[in-house]
């Protein structure tokens, strides 16, 4: 081929013999070939994925399959170099999970191989995290591809759930539980798996793992498993509207007695920060609003919101008697070492426990449950949160949660109890009115404080509690009322003005094309005309020199065009005489579109009629006239 010719990538691959299967094929012809020697080859995995028949025949021999399963489930010898210990287990895992149908069939049909895999879970001690990831990956591909066989196999094992929970502190085993819930595609089979796990009391036993007697990894992974079960089950309920029965795992999780068991583990007896944080994460997930996640299901939004409020009833009822314990955690947190920061020492620091407690109480307030809100106000929880807000002045995680809490209280309807309403409104008015400091470095909460002040101003002017808020502002002492009004009119207004961003700059230079753009705005061009103009621009890019010679106008015609444009108002319905030059242009373009295969003949004829230099000059002049004609043509043509 010539210098401009390109070879298809596939043709080049085979033409130059870039594939390497011939080397493996030669190797596989040896009778004394060992599995270790084969796995040392760099391209063994690639050849396996492209279904090399000779290679698969070798790998699928029972002794070789058993050896690969043993590698991914048994601890390698401690002798030898550390970097080579897991070489063969890693390659064996990649081969077993290469998603080759022949390998999947061989693993799923051989119960002895499945028992070898299952034996990994029966280890009495802690699991090797790397081998656990290999094991989970192999089981995951079997759950996905050989679902019936593997689910049937696991259901026969009475100790399967016990072993899962025993090793739940290993992240790969937690992943295996989630694969069992997510990789089963057929709805009826998935429902059977969910019912089976519910009968095994998987939810209650996961909650038992969130207990001070367990280690932190068990707390974290059990909590994450419960959160994933909640989210996956709710999403599944939205996607599968014609489900015959509700998700039993989700139903169990949303029961009040289940949540009370979790709260008891968190707050009674010996307290553990890890247990409290892990338990709060589950409660926050239960209180999350449901959102339809499938396109085109906007009509389900109202139903999803209703279901969300109903599903959180159990959590709110179980939470209400324990609010005083959570409030006590804000006042007397677990002991923490002083924390030295770039701007000073924190003694004690806020801590992850109190931050999660604030998140939980803010989420509970946003649920707009009247009884729970009254209990929080009676405990003076909002003011405690505000004290933390101003004390930890650079903890924006805390500031965001307190802002969310106060904003939710401002926008909620007024409580029925008059005494509760007064305390509630006092809490809302407190943060923006009381000035905190003047001068010095800017506090980290100032941005959130500005937003709280704006929320208060907006709800005072118009909102469900506007009348009550306005009355309370009038009842403030004269000095505080003056300071508040001065703050709103002065610093707050200035800050809002600085934060206002102009989307379009009004300061720009005026160009001569602006006048033309203004005239063009008067016309409403149809979409077809715009597409046609784009095609014409494309065609003009591929014009030949002969075509350019016949294109455009001579000097007299171009001058007449200018005069016509100047003396006649531009309008889409101009007389035919005015549009004649541009009509010729359109006719030429359409002829070029229809007769695009005759370009070579036209080039040859033009080359015979003029010299090379004349042809270049004509092309340049024609292209210049073409651009001038396009700038001068009426907008109705373009």
Automatic annotation (TrEMBL):
<dbReference type="GO" id="GO:0005829">
    <property type="term" value="C:cytosol"/>
</dbReference>
<feature type="region of interest" description="Disordered">
    <location>
        <begin position="593"/>
        <end position="638"/>
    </location>
</feature>
<dbReference type="GO" id="GO:0019903">
    <property type="term" value="F:protein phosphatase binding"/>
</dbReference>
<dbReference type="GO" id="GO:0005634">
    <property type="term" value="C:nucleus"/>
</dbReference>
<comment type="similarity">
    <text>Belongs to the SAPS family.</text>
</comment>
<dbReference type="Pfam" id="PF04499">
    <property type="entry name" value="SAPS"/>
</dbReference>
<feature type="compositionally biased region" description="Low complexity">
    <location>
        <begin position="566"/>
        <end position="579"/>
    </location>
</feature>
<feature type="region of interest" description="Disordered">
    <location>
        <begin position="560"/>
        <end position="579"/>
    </location>
</feature>
<dbReference type="InterPro" id="IPR016024">
    <property type="entry name" value="ARM-type_fold"/>
</dbReference>
<protein>
    <submittedName>
        <fullName>Protein phosphatase 6 regulatory subunit 1</fullName>
    </submittedName>
</protein>
<dbReference type="GO" id="GO:0019888">
    <property type="term" value="F:protein phosphatase regulator activity"/>
</dbReference>
<dbReference type="InterPro" id="IPR007587">
    <property type="entry name" value="SAPS"/>
</dbReference>
<feature type="compositionally biased region" description="Acidic residues">
    <location>
        <begin position="597"/>
        <end position="618"/>
    </location>
</feature>
């Amino acid at each position: 081929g010539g210098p401009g010719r390109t070879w298809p990538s596939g043709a080049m691959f085979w033409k130059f013999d870039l594939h390497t299967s011939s080397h493996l094929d030669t190797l596989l012809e040896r009778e004394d070939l060992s599995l270790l020697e084969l796995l040392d080859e760099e391209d063994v995995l690639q050849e396996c994925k492209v279904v090399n028949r000779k290679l698969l025949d070798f790998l699928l021999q029972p002794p070789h399959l058993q050896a690969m399963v043993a590698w991914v489930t048994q601890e390698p010898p401690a002798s030898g170099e550390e970097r080579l210990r897991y070489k063969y287990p890693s390659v064996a895992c990649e081969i077993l999970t290469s998603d080759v149908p022949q390998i999947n069939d061989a693993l799923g049909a051989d119960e002895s191989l499945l028992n070898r895999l299952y034996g990994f879970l029966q280890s009495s001690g802690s699991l090797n995290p790397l081998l656990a990831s290999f094991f989970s990956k192999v089981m995951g591909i079997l759950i996905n591809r050989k679902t019936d066989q593997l689910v049937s196999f696991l259901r026969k094992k009475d100790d399967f759930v016990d072993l899962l929970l025993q090793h739940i502190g290993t992240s790969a085993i937690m992943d295996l539980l989630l694969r069992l819930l997510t990789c089963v595609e057929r709805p009826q089979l998935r429902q059977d798996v969910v019912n089976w796990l519910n009968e095994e009391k998987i939810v209650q036993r996961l909650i038992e793992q969130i207990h001070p007697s367990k280690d932190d990894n068990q707390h974290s992974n059990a909590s994450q498993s419960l959160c994933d079960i909640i989210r996956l089950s709710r999403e599944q309920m939205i996607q599968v509207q014609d489900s015959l029965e509700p998700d039993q795992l989700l139903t169990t999780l949303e029961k009040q007695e289940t949540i009370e068991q979790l709260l008891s583990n968190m707050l009674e007896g010996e307290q553990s920060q890890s247990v409290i944080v892990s338990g709060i994460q589950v409660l926050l997930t239960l209180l999350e609003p449901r959102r339809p996640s499938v396109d085109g299901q906007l009509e389900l939004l109202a139903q999803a919101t209703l279901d969300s409020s109903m599903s959180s009833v159990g959590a709110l009822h179980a939470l209400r008697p324990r609010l005083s314990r959570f409030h006590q955690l804000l006042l007397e947190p677990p002991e923490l070492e002083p924390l030295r920061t770039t701007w000073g020492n924190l003694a004690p620091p806020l801590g992850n426990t109190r931050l999660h407690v604030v998140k939980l109480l803010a989420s509970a307030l946003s649920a707009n449950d009247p009884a729970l809100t009254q209990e929080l106000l009676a405990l003076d929880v909002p003011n405690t949160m505000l004290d933390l807000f101003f004390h930890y002045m650079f903890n924006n995680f805390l500031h965001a949660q307190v802002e969310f809490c106060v904003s939710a209280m401002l926008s909620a309807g007024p409580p029925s109890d008059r005494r509760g309403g007064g305390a509630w409104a006092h809490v809302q008015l407190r943060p923006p009115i009381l000035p905190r400091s003047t001068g010095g470095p800017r506090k980290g909460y100032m941005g959130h404080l500005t937003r709280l002040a704006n929320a208060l101003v907006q709800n005072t002017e118009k909102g469900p509690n506007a009348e009550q808020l306005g009355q309370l502002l009038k009842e403030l002492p004269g000095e505080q009322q003056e300071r508040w009004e001065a703050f709103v009119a002065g610093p707050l207004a200035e800050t809002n003005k600085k934060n206002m961003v102009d989307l379009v700059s009004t300061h720009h230079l005026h160009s001569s094309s602006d006048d033309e753009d203004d005239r063009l705005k008067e016309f409403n061009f149809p979409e077809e005309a715009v597409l046609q103009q784009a095609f014409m621009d494309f065609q003009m890019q591929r014009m030949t020199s002969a075509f350019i010679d016949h294109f455009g106008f001579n000097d007299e015609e171009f001058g007449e065009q200018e005069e016509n444009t100047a003396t006649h108002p531009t309008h889409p319905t101009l007389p035919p005489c005015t549009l004649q030059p541009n009509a010729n242009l359109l006719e030429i373009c359409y002829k070029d579109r229809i007769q695009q295969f005759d370009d070579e003949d036209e080039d040859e004829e033009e080359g015979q009629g003029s010299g090379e230099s004349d042809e270049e000059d004509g092309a340049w002049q024609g292209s210049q006239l073409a651009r001038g004609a396009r700038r001068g043509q009426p907008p109705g043509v373009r």
